Amino acid sequence: MKKSLPILAVGVVVALAPVLGASSYILGVGVLVFAYLVSAMSLNIIYGLLGLLSLAHVAFWGIGGYVAVIAVVDHGVSFWLAVPLAGLAAGILSILVGYPALRLNRHSFVVVTLSLTLLATLVSRDWMGVTRGPMGIPGLPAPNFFGISLDGPLGFYYLSFAFAAVSLGLMYIFFTSRLAGTMRAICQSEELARSQGINPTPYKLLGFFLSAFFTAMAGGIYAFHMRVIDPLIFDFYFMQAFLIIVIVGGRGSFTGVLISGAIMAILPEVLRFSVDLRMILYGVILLVFVLKLPEGLAGFVRRRREEKMRLELRQ
Description:
By secondary structure, the chain is mainly alpha-helical. It is built from 14 helices and four strands. It has a domain of about 210 residues. The chain is about 75% helix and about 5% strand. The strands form two sheets. A two-stranded antiparallel sheet has the order 1-4. It starts with a helix and ends with a helix.
Protein backbone atom coordinates (compact mmCIF):
# COMPACT_ATOMS: atom_id res chain seq x y z
CA MET A 1 0.00 0.00 0.00
CA LYS A 2 2.82 2.41 0.88
CA LYS A 3 4.43 1.84 -2.52
CA SER A 4 1.20 2.87 -4.23
CA LEU A 5 0.84 6.17 -2.35
CA PRO A 6 3.28 8.19 -4.54
CA ILE A 7 1.53 6.93 -7.69
CA LEU A 8 -1.88 7.81 -6.24
CA ALA A 9 -0.61 11.27 -5.24
CA VAL A 10 0.68 11.92 -8.75
CA GLY A 11 -2.63 10.69 -10.16
CA VAL A 12 -4.56 13.16 -8.01
CA VAL A 13 -2.33 16.04 -9.14
CA VAL A 14 -2.72 15.03 -12.78
CA ALA A 15 -6.50 14.78 -12.38
CA LEU A 16 -6.60 18.27 -10.85
CA ALA A 17 -4.27 19.81 -13.47
CA PRO A 18 -7.10 21.61 -15.35
CA VAL A 19 -8.42 23.00 -12.07
CA LEU A 20 -4.92 24.21 -11.16
CA GLY A 21 -4.85 26.38 -14.27
CA ALA A 22 -3.21 24.20 -16.91
CA SER A 23 -3.37 25.76 -20.39
CA SER A 24 -4.95 24.13 -23.44
CA TYR A 25 -1.46 23.34 -24.74
CA ILE A 26 -0.53 21.50 -21.53
CA LEU A 27 -3.80 19.58 -21.65
CA GLY A 28 -2.99 18.54 -25.23
CA VAL A 29 0.45 17.34 -24.15
CA GLY A 30 -1.25 15.45 -21.33
CA VAL A 31 -3.41 13.54 -23.83
CA LEU A 32 -0.24 12.54 -25.70
CA VAL A 33 1.45 11.45 -22.45
CA PHE A 34 -1.50 9.22 -21.52
CA ALA A 35 -1.50 7.55 -24.95
CA TYR A 36 2.27 6.99 -24.81
CA LEU A 37 2.13 5.58 -21.28
CA VAL A 38 -0.49 2.97 -22.18
CA SER A 39 1.27 2.01 -25.43
CA ALA A 40 4.73 1.77 -23.84
CA MET A 41 3.40 -0.25 -20.89
CA SER A 42 1.67 -2.66 -23.26
CA LEU A 43 4.96 -3.08 -25.15
CA ASN A 44 6.48 -3.81 -21.75
CA ILE A 45 4.29 -6.91 -21.56
CA ILE A 46 5.64 -8.63 -24.66
CA TYR A 47 9.16 -7.17 -24.57
CA GLY A 48 9.68 -6.65 -20.84
CA LEU A 49 8.09 -9.79 -19.43
CA LEU A 50 8.72 -12.20 -22.30
CA GLY A 51 11.82 -10.68 -23.89
CA LEU A 52 10.23 -10.68 -27.36
CA LEU A 53 10.92 -7.50 -29.32
CA SER A 54 7.79 -6.76 -31.34
CA LEU A 55 8.14 -4.16 -34.09
CA ALA A 56 4.45 -4.70 -34.84
CA HIS A 57 3.58 -2.42 -31.93
CA VAL A 58 3.30 0.62 -34.18
CA ALA A 59 1.21 -1.48 -36.60
CA PHE A 60 -1.33 -2.22 -33.84
CA TRP A 61 -1.24 1.47 -32.84
CA GLY A 62 -2.14 2.51 -36.40
CA ILE A 63 -4.58 -0.33 -37.06
CA GLY A 64 -6.42 0.59 -33.87
CA GLY A 65 -6.67 4.17 -35.09
CA TYR A 66 -8.00 3.18 -38.51
CA VAL A 67 -10.49 0.59 -37.20
CA ALA A 68 -11.93 3.05 -34.66
CA VAL A 69 -12.16 5.88 -37.20
CA ILE A 70 -13.67 3.77 -39.99
CA ALA A 71 -16.18 2.22 -37.58
CA VAL A 72 -17.39 5.67 -36.49
CA VAL A 73 -17.19 7.57 -39.78
CA ASP A 74 -18.29 4.91 -42.29
CA HIS A 75 -20.51 2.64 -40.20
CA GLY A 76 -21.98 4.97 -37.59
CA VAL A 77 -20.65 2.99 -34.63
CA SER A 78 -20.47 4.84 -31.32
CA PHE A 79 -17.00 6.05 -30.33
CA TRP A 80 -17.35 4.21 -27.02
CA LEU A 81 -17.88 0.92 -28.86
CA ALA A 82 -15.44 1.64 -31.69
CA VAL A 83 -12.38 1.99 -29.42
CA PRO A 84 -12.78 -1.43 -27.69
CA LEU A 85 -13.66 -2.89 -31.11
CA ALA A 86 -10.35 -1.55 -32.43
CA GLY A 87 -8.53 -3.20 -29.53
CA LEU A 88 -10.30 -6.50 -30.17
CA ALA A 89 -9.55 -6.38 -33.92
CA ALA A 90 -5.85 -5.79 -33.25
CA GLY A 91 -5.87 -8.52 -30.61
CA ILE A 92 -7.35 -11.05 -33.02
CA LEU A 93 -4.79 -10.06 -35.65
CA SER A 94 -2.01 -10.51 -33.09
CA ILE A 95 -3.14 -14.11 -32.48
CA LEU A 96 -3.40 -14.86 -36.22
CA VAL A 97 0.10 -13.50 -36.80
CA GLY A 98 1.56 -14.58 -33.47
CA TYR A 99 0.56 -18.24 -33.55
CA PRO A 100 2.94 -19.14 -36.40
CA ALA A 101 5.47 -16.34 -35.66
CA LEU A 102 5.98 -17.30 -32.01
CA ARG A 103 7.04 -20.77 -33.07
CA LEU A 104 10.08 -19.22 -34.73
CA ASN A 105 13.21 -18.06 -32.96
CA ARG A 106 13.39 -14.56 -31.46
CA HIS A 107 15.22 -13.04 -34.43
CA SER A 108 12.70 -14.38 -36.93
CA PHE A 109 9.87 -13.08 -34.74
CA VAL A 110 11.31 -9.56 -35.01
CA VAL A 111 11.41 -9.86 -38.82
CA VAL A 112 7.78 -11.06 -38.95
CA THR A 113 6.55 -8.20 -36.78
CA LEU A 114 8.49 -5.68 -38.88
CA SER A 115 6.90 -7.15 -42.01
CA LEU A 116 3.45 -6.71 -40.47
CA THR A 117 4.16 -3.02 -39.84
CA LEU A 118 5.38 -2.48 -43.41
CA LEU A 119 2.33 -4.32 -44.77
CA ALA A 120 -0.06 -2.24 -42.65
CA THR A 121 1.61 0.95 -43.92
CA LEU A 122 1.23 -0.14 -47.55
CA VAL A 123 -2.43 -1.05 -47.04
CA SER A 124 -3.17 2.33 -45.45
CA ARG A 125 -1.64 4.09 -48.46
CA ASP A 126 -3.05 1.96 -51.27
CA TRP A 127 -6.51 0.81 -50.13
CA MET A 128 -8.12 4.03 -51.30
CA GLY A 129 -11.70 2.85 -50.96
CA VAL A 130 -11.35 2.24 -47.22
CA THR A 131 -8.46 4.30 -45.86
CA ARG A 132 -8.65 7.19 -48.41
CA GLY A 133 -4.96 6.65 -49.09
CA PRO A 134 -2.34 9.35 -48.39
CA MET A 135 -5.04 12.00 -47.90
CA GLY A 136 -6.39 10.13 -44.90
CA ILE A 137 -9.70 10.75 -43.15
CA PRO A 138 -9.94 14.33 -41.80
CA GLY A 139 -12.58 16.11 -39.73
CA LEU A 140 -13.22 13.32 -37.24
CA PRO A 141 -16.23 13.96 -35.00
CA ALA A 142 -15.70 14.62 -31.31
CA PRO A 143 -16.86 11.88 -28.90
CA ASN A 144 -20.16 12.51 -27.15
CA PHE A 145 -20.64 11.61 -23.50
CA PHE A 146 -24.29 11.65 -22.36
CA GLY A 147 -25.05 14.60 -24.60
CA ILE A 148 -21.81 16.44 -23.74
CA SER A 149 -19.44 16.91 -26.68
CA LEU A 150 -15.82 16.26 -25.74
CA ASP A 151 -14.67 18.67 -28.41
CA GLY A 152 -12.31 20.86 -26.40
CA PRO A 153 -8.96 20.01 -24.81
CA LEU A 154 -10.50 19.74 -21.33
CA GLY A 155 -12.99 17.03 -22.26
CA PHE A 156 -10.45 15.01 -24.19
CA TYR A 157 -7.92 15.37 -21.39
CA TYR A 158 -10.26 13.74 -18.90
CA LEU A 159 -11.28 11.10 -21.45
CA SER A 160 -7.64 10.16 -22.02
CA PHE A 161 -6.87 10.32 -18.31
CA ALA A 162 -9.74 7.95 -17.50
CA PHE A 163 -8.64 5.56 -20.25
CA ALA A 164 -5.02 5.60 -19.05
CA ALA A 165 -6.03 5.15 -15.40
CA VAL A 166 -8.19 2.11 -16.15
CA SER A 167 -5.72 0.57 -18.62
CA LEU A 168 -2.67 1.10 -16.42
CA GLY A 169 -4.60 -0.15 -13.40
CA LEU A 170 -5.49 -3.38 -15.21
CA MET A 171 -1.92 -3.78 -16.42
CA TYR A 172 -0.60 -3.20 -12.89
CA ILE A 173 -2.79 -6.05 -11.66
CA PHE A 174 -1.43 -8.20 -14.47
CA PHE A 175 2.22 -7.27 -13.77
CA THR A 176 1.81 -8.34 -10.14
CA SER A 177 0.00 -11.59 -10.99
CA ARG A 178 1.32 -15.16 -11.22
CA LEU A 179 0.87 -14.99 -15.00
CA ALA A 180 3.48 -12.24 -15.21
CA GLY A 181 5.78 -14.24 -12.93
CA THR A 182 5.50 -17.23 -15.26
CA MET A 183 6.27 -15.00 -18.23
CA ARG A 184 9.42 -13.73 -16.50
CA ALA A 185 10.47 -17.33 -15.90
CA ILE A 186 9.92 -18.15 -19.59
CA CYS A 187 12.01 -15.12 -20.55
CA GLN A 188 14.89 -16.17 -18.29
CA SER A 189 15.00 -19.79 -19.45
CA GLU A 190 12.40 -21.22 -21.80
CA GLU A 191 14.01 -24.68 -21.61
CA LEU A 192 13.80 -24.70 -17.81
CA ALA A 193 10.16 -23.58 -17.97
CA ARG A 194 9.37 -26.45 -20.35
CA SER A 195 11.07 -28.90 -18.00
CA GLN A 196 8.65 -27.76 -15.29
CA GLY A 197 5.67 -28.59 -17.49
CA ILE A 198 5.01 -25.03 -18.70
CA ASN A 199 4.01 -24.58 -22.34
CA PRO A 200 5.39 -21.13 -23.34
CA THR A 201 3.19 -20.67 -26.43
CA PRO A 202 -0.11 -19.77 -24.67
CA TYR A 203 1.71 -17.27 -22.44
CA LYS A 204 3.41 -15.69 -25.46
CA LEU A 205 0.10 -15.45 -27.30
CA LEU A 206 -1.54 -13.87 -24.27
CA GLY A 207 1.27 -11.33 -23.96
CA PHE A 208 1.09 -10.51 -27.67
CA PHE A 209 -2.71 -10.18 -27.49
CA LEU A 210 -2.68 -7.84 -24.48
CA SER A 211 0.09 -5.78 -26.03
CA ALA A 212 -1.92 -5.31 -29.23
CA PHE A 213 -5.25 -4.78 -27.45
CA PHE A 214 -4.22 -1.86 -25.23
CA THR A 215 -2.04 -0.23 -27.90
CA ALA A 216 -4.81 -0.30 -30.49
CA MET A 217 -7.24 1.42 -28.13
CA ALA A 218 -4.64 4.08 -27.36
CA GLY A 219 -4.13 4.57 -31.11
CA GLY A 220 -7.87 4.98 -31.61
CA ILE A 221 -8.14 7.67 -28.93
CA TYR A 222 -5.02 9.40 -30.29
CA ALA A 223 -6.54 9.54 -33.80
CA PHE A 224 -9.72 11.21 -32.55
CA HIS A 225 -7.64 13.63 -30.51
CA MET A 226 -5.76 14.66 -33.67
CA ARG A 227 -9.09 14.86 -35.57
CA VAL A 228 -7.48 13.20 -38.59
CA ILE A 229 -5.91 9.86 -39.47
CA ASP A 230 -3.54 9.11 -42.33
CA PRO A 231 -0.64 6.70 -43.04
CA LEU A 232 1.67 8.85 -40.89
CA ILE A 233 0.19 7.13 -37.86
CA PHE A 234 2.45 4.20 -38.80
CA ASP A 235 5.52 6.43 -38.61
CA PHE A 236 8.37 4.51 -36.98
CA TYR A 237 8.90 7.48 -34.67
CA PHE A 238 6.10 6.12 -32.48
CA MET A 239 7.77 2.69 -32.28
CA GLN A 240 11.04 4.36 -31.40
CA ALA A 241 9.39 6.38 -28.64
CA PHE A 242 7.64 3.37 -27.10
CA LEU A 243 10.79 1.26 -27.22
CA ILE A 244 12.98 3.95 -25.65
CA ILE A 245 10.47 4.41 -22.83
CA VAL A 246 10.65 0.70 -22.00
CA ILE A 247 14.45 0.53 -22.21
CA VAL A 248 14.96 3.67 -20.11
CA GLY A 249 12.43 2.61 -17.50
CA GLY A 250 13.69 -0.95 -17.30
CA ARG A 251 12.27 -3.96 -19.11
CA GLY A 252 9.63 -5.70 -17.04
CA SER A 253 9.37 -2.91 -14.47
CA PHE A 254 5.96 -1.30 -14.10
CA THR A 255 6.99 1.71 -12.01
CA GLY A 256 10.19 2.36 -13.99
CA VAL A 257 8.35 2.43 -17.33
CA LEU A 258 5.65 4.63 -15.81
CA ILE A 259 8.24 7.22 -14.76
CA SER A 260 10.26 7.10 -17.97
CA GLY A 261 7.05 7.27 -20.02
CA ALA A 262 6.03 10.53 -18.37
CA ILE A 263 9.50 12.02 -18.93
CA MET A 264 10.11 10.77 -22.46
CA ALA A 265 6.63 11.75 -23.68
CA ILE A 266 7.09 15.33 -22.47
CA LEU A 267 10.67 15.64 -23.76
CA PRO A 268 9.72 15.97 -27.47
CA GLU A 269 7.51 18.94 -26.60
CA VAL A 270 10.40 20.62 -24.79
CA LEU A 271 12.60 20.06 -27.86
CA ARG A 272 9.92 20.94 -30.42
CA PHE A 273 12.06 23.85 -31.66
CA SER A 274 14.51 21.39 -33.25
CA VAL A 275 13.54 18.01 -34.68
CA ASP A 276 17.18 17.17 -35.42
CA LEU A 277 18.23 17.86 -31.84
CA ARG A 278 15.35 15.76 -30.56
CA MET A 279 16.39 12.75 -32.64
CA ILE A 280 20.05 13.13 -31.65
CA LEU A 281 19.11 13.32 -27.97
CA TYR A 282 16.93 10.22 -28.32
CA GLY A 283 19.85 8.37 -29.86
CA VAL A 284 22.24 9.48 -27.11
CA ILE A 285 19.78 8.46 -24.37
CA LEU A 286 19.24 5.05 -25.96
CA LEU A 287 22.99 4.50 -26.39
CA VAL A 288 23.77 5.48 -22.78
CA PHE A 289 21.16 3.18 -21.32
CA VAL A 290 22.01 0.23 -23.56
CA LEU A 291 25.73 0.49 -22.76
CA LYS A 292 25.79 1.78 -19.17
CA LEU A 293 22.38 1.00 -17.71
CA PRO A 294 21.00 -2.00 -19.62
CA GLU A 295 18.48 -2.70 -16.85
CA GLY A 296 17.12 0.86 -17.01
CA LEU A 297 16.13 3.13 -14.15
CA ALA A 298 14.51 0.27 -12.24
CA GLY A 299 17.70 -1.80 -12.41
CA PHE A 300 19.85 1.15 -11.33
CA VAL A 301 17.66 1.81 -8.28
CA ARG A 302 17.61 -1.89 -7.42
CA ARG A 303 21.42 -2.14 -7.56
CA ARG A 304 21.86 0.96 -5.40
CA ARG A 305 19.45 -0.47 -2.86
CA GLU A 306 21.34 -3.79 -2.80
CA GLU A 307 24.67 -1.98 -2.36
CA LYS A 308 23.23 0.00 0.53
CA MET A 309 21.98 -3.17 2.19
CA ARG A 310 25.39 -4.83 1.82
CA LEU A 311 27.11 -1.80 3.40
CA GLU A 312 24.69 -1.87 6.31
CA LEU A 313 25.32 -5.59 6.84
CA ARG A 314 29.08 -5.03 6.87
CA GLN A 315 28.72 -2.34 9.50
